[in-house]
Design goal:
143 residues, alpha+beta, 2 domains, five-stranded mixed barrel, 22% strand
Length: 143
């Protein structure tokens, strides 16, 4: 079996293993094996191939992995689910008090309560979503 084919198989195995571990390290090693496969295909001897693999792997781990880890562990840039509703406008469809009411938020109907228990928000008013508690939106009227 040709040496370049062996390096190509190693690159494939490491690439597949990366999908299961999500550490970026195995993907970098797979990339180094792929680079080495290219050099093996042009006829470099085995010791030079090992040196190329070591250089490519070390460079990848030292330069690429910290950047990849920073992106994987960085703060979430977008809010999802109920967190995305906070700060959104809510159209009051049924009078909202400190105990009950209904609002429409982004096309969906929600049960609602006034964030300030003493407020009464009439139907037709627009309010801001302050918090989501279970399946109830806590809202405050816009001025």
């Amino acid at each position: 079996m040709d040496e370049w084919l062996i390096w190509l198989i190693i690159a494939g195995v490491l690439g597949v293993a990366e999908f299961f571990t999500l550490t970026a390290a195995l993907g970098i090693l797979g990339g180094a094996a792929l680079i080495t496969a290219g050099f093996a295909a042009i006829g470099l001897p085995a010791p030079a191939q090992l040196l190329i693999f070591a250089i490519a792997a070390t460079t990848g781990v030292l330069l690429v992995r910290p950047v990849a880890r920073r992106h994987m562990r960085g703060p979430q840039r977008q809010r999802f689910g109920i967190d995305a509703l906070i700060g959104q406008p809510a159209y009051v469809t049924q009078e909202v008090t400190g105990l009950k009411g209904r609002v429409r938020i982004g096309g969906e109907e929600w049960t609602a309560r006034a964030y300030d228990q003493t407020l009464v928000i009439p139907a037709g008013a627009t309010a801001d979503v302050i918090e989501i508690s279970g399946s109830t939106a806590l809202i405050y009227p816009r001025e």
